[in-house]
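Researcher: Here's my situation. A collaborator sent me these components and asked whether they could plausibly form a single complex. I don't have experimental data yet, so a predicted model of the whole assembly would be a useful starting point for our discussion.
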Amino acid sequence: MTTTLKHTRYIISQNGITFGAFSLFFGFVLIAVLGNAIAPYDPLASNSAIALQPPTALHWFGTDQLGRDVLSRVIVATRLDLGIAVLAVAMSFVIGSILGTCAGYFGGWTDRIVSRCIDTLMAFPLFVLAMGLVAALGNSIENIIYATAIINLPLYTRVIRSEVLVRREAGFVEAARLTGNGDWRIMARHLFPNVLPVMMVHLSLNMGWAILNAAGLSFIGLGVQPPTAEWGIMVAEGATYIVSGEWWLALFPGAVLMLAVFCFNLLGDGLRDLIDPRMRT
Amino acid sequence: MARYSTGKIVGRRILGAIPSVIGVVIVTFLLTRSLPGDPAAFFAGPAATAEAIEEIRQNLGLDKSLPEQFLIYIGELFRGDLGVSLTTGQTVLYDLLTRLPASLELTLAALVFAIALALPLGILAATRPNSWIDHGVRLLATAGVSLPTFFTGLFLIYVLYYLWGIVPAPLGRLDILNSPPPQITGFYLIDSLLIGDLGLFWAAAAQLFLPAVTLGLFALAPLARVTRASMLGMLSSDFIRTARASGLPPRQVLFGYAFRNAMLPVVTTLGVVFSFLLGANILVEKVFAWPGIGSYAVEALVASDYAPIQGFILTMALLYVVLNLLIDLLYVVIDPRAGVES
Amino acid sequence: MRRRSLIKTSVGLAAGITLANGLKACSSAESPSTDAASDSSSDGSSGAKPTDARLTMVQGGGFPNSLDLHRVGTNRPAYGISWVMYDRLMTFGQKELPDGTLSYDYTQLEPELAESWEMAEDGMSVTFKLRQDATFHDGAPVTAQDVKWSYDRAVSIGGFPTFQMKAGALENPDQFEVVDDHTFRVKFLRPDKLTMIDMAVPIPVIINSELVKPHLTDADPWGAEWLNVNDAGGGAYQLGEFKPNERITLTRFEDWKSGPLPQIQEVIVLNVPEAGNRRALLEKGDIDVNYDLTEKDQKEIAAMGEFTMASTPIENCLYSIDMHTNAQLKGAENPFADVKVRQAVAYAMPYDAIMQTALYDQAVPMYGEGTFDPDSTTWPQPTPYKTDMEQAKKLIAESAYPNGFETSLAFDLGNQEWAEPTVVLIQESLAELGIKVGIEKVPNANFRSVLVEKSRPMIVNNFGGWLNYPDYFFFYAYHGQDATFNGSSYQNPEMDKMIEAALASKPGEPEYAENVEGFIEMAWEEMPRVPLVQPKLSVAMQNNVSGYQYWFHRQLDFRQLEKA
């Protein structure tokens, strides 16, 4: 454990970017946790007297069509956006892990069936599948999470399956088996923990993608319901104002959205270095 | 490790893909049927009476039970009939045939742009690992993949077209003055050259520029990353060290030896990126009024127009199968040692 | 006398068209409206010379999806193409509105493909003389056989065209008779004030039957598949190029005989789905006409003063909030069945805020100015309700729901620009009454189902009839027949009685005014729908484009436009 810590410190000290990404990540988490408490205004309160004002000292990010404070909406949206990403990724991770571990460990028919299903899923244009799912189920936050989770499922299942496959016959598994551990116990206690580090990288990279995916759905009109603040929908709606000169409506949420995805991507890189130092040299 | 002839590989691959394709057909059918809108009510028009809606429902065959509808759909599929799009009023086959080249042209152009940028950046980063250049490249590539494409697209339009006026209007594949070349390949860039119309070629290229850049930015990260990693691996390998030690000029070592051998993973990634872009260009197509299959699918979905959605997803699934096959074959071509395992 | 019978006929027209097709969401996304701007009109007298001008336009809310408007699923923008590519026997005249703009005149039928016509003495048939020199785009002369085939097709093909023809008592191919090559007779089944007018609406186009016949099959006896993508017309413009969902080009048919040759030689209709891009194209001068504008763009483009704008209130059209009035909804008790709740909601509407922030003041307010005892048959007219939270709170306290309730408000994603801010403002305002409103954004295609099923407690509705008669608006929006656009599913026998009585009488008769004022009064008391505004429809054109005229089908008539 201490070596890991040391290694972490080494990586971070060696790599300013990863360090930056880590700090940024904690910043986002902090904003998400505090949410409403640090928003300067009520993100839902309209005020037609100050509609569509460019950024001022009072409203750093300007105001939207209904006179709502864009900064407050961006802040409050953090929790929702990170929430969608975390839940979606967690869901596909859990289901993908179970499917992948079983497929890899048992092989045979289990493997064949799981692999077939995953192949079928992979053959879909994934964004269209997500669109179709949200359209069919109705556009609510839960359904956006489900759809995002489903289209991420193949990734986890495949990666875990191959990782487990490699280790299935490894000595430590064999040893566990000989000492009388059952299949499930071996999978849960011995195989899965070994695969976990590799998955962390994918988790992080995937978070960014999940946020982008939700934003894309919003752009087509399949996002969350108004007046909920969400980055993607703020960008999508703000985009129609760009030509008429109200650039701040799309720019600020867009920039924050990008920063968050950026942060997760860099974090993924950093984790990769941490977990598998060989990959960096 | 048995080896198979190319023909056998293709055959096996296609056979192996059949269950997936069947799965896609079934899932898509169920998905479209569970869309909440009622196509009969939608296409009957706003003033339609209940009988009028019912009549249209019968016309569209939507009054039949689901299994029945499915059998009819499968039957038509076997005859190569993908149905008619109610939104565009054309057969789905016609729509897909005219629109697929647009999407492919856009995606390929984006890929070319991404490669042109990612390879030099990746090599640059690999030759100076952990320098500020390396970090800069990494940041740049990651930033590209972090942008929502529709946002990038709209912003580029605003700045480059609306404010500066240095790119043509976002009007799809050609500006107002030009009419498209006769369809030979469906790729305007190629068709215009085939008929020897250089003006048209440039017009099409100008229209293609901005959407391709928008989409290409998205492909930058994976390609640059793989190039870098692969080059790094090569540069630290024994034979490069030997080459260096034997006094070969650095340029020759870099490009003649290391780069050539580092291409294999890049090509594999290229295939993955291509199929990914093909799906990701939906939003870009919408922003740039690009008449591809992505924007087609979005419109059909919004109108609960079943046939085009089914046709689109099926096309993409088949495309995916073909693409994977091509990657495998390419792999064999580049590195004959690889072979293909059963 | 003649005037009166024409009015009578036109009321009939309203009935027929409304019955079949006139009801539509009057969103700006779907339809152009009215106003001819400035100087010139293209009726024969002003005599615009044909030039080689080329007109480019962009259009939102769908791209023409067929060249055959008899096909199932043909959308509204396609009417504009069909309108100029095909001729009808007759067309409508032109009139100047009080504000100086031009509109079609439904009291005047004018010759198009028919040179003249004559009513039989018994009034049971009409005989048309076709122009001797008229030809189709392929040069074939237009004959009475073509006319008969086209009319036969319209009454036989089924779906909307057949329905529309029926509205004018045109039901059976036996009614249509070829007298000689250039004489065509329509026999009436019964006297019907609608029949003549129904022959000048977009549906009965004259098709080049000889051109279509080789493409007929048993499965497709009317050549729907072929006509869908091919031009078999004889109208002022012929098809240049049709790339579905991309572009349509139309070129002037130089041998057109049914009217003055249009000034514009080529029309290009481009599909640009993003509203922002459409506006940018106009501002950069890359296109001539931007043909549907959001309220925000109406305001801002007009403020720029660099373009010719045409912006007119849409006749007989209202944006409103409809509350479901049945006692039960989806098996649960429905609070909006309580009239006090509905009135409270009407008083709690943040009208001015909606007008300013959602509609950018680009609509006609329909609130606050009216009285509970209406003394005019003008429609739409403002309600007596204005934002009054005290009154609203009082009413809700008196209702069966003094502590409020939870409900939802659905809107059509297609109207997002104005509907979304509107519902957010309403949500905020109703919260003060203890009414917790969840917002439901419904994709385009599904909203039609929402309207048909009447499954939501509150919806944002936009509804308008083609012609300006309150009784027809009420017949579809308040009558117990519970038509699609009766978003409140409002059913009240007394209301029905007054609406039916108004339908049976004519404007100008005391009975008519009495009933119209009666049902408006009842609507204000019962408040099943809260009218917000009468929307405007806007077109922005480069300054060298003129000749714009309002048509009831709300499409541009390229034949009338001119470009300097």
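Model: Some features of this prediction you could bring to your collaborator: Chain A touches chain B through 48 residues (CB under 8 Å). Residues 183-220 of chain A form the longest helix (38 residues).
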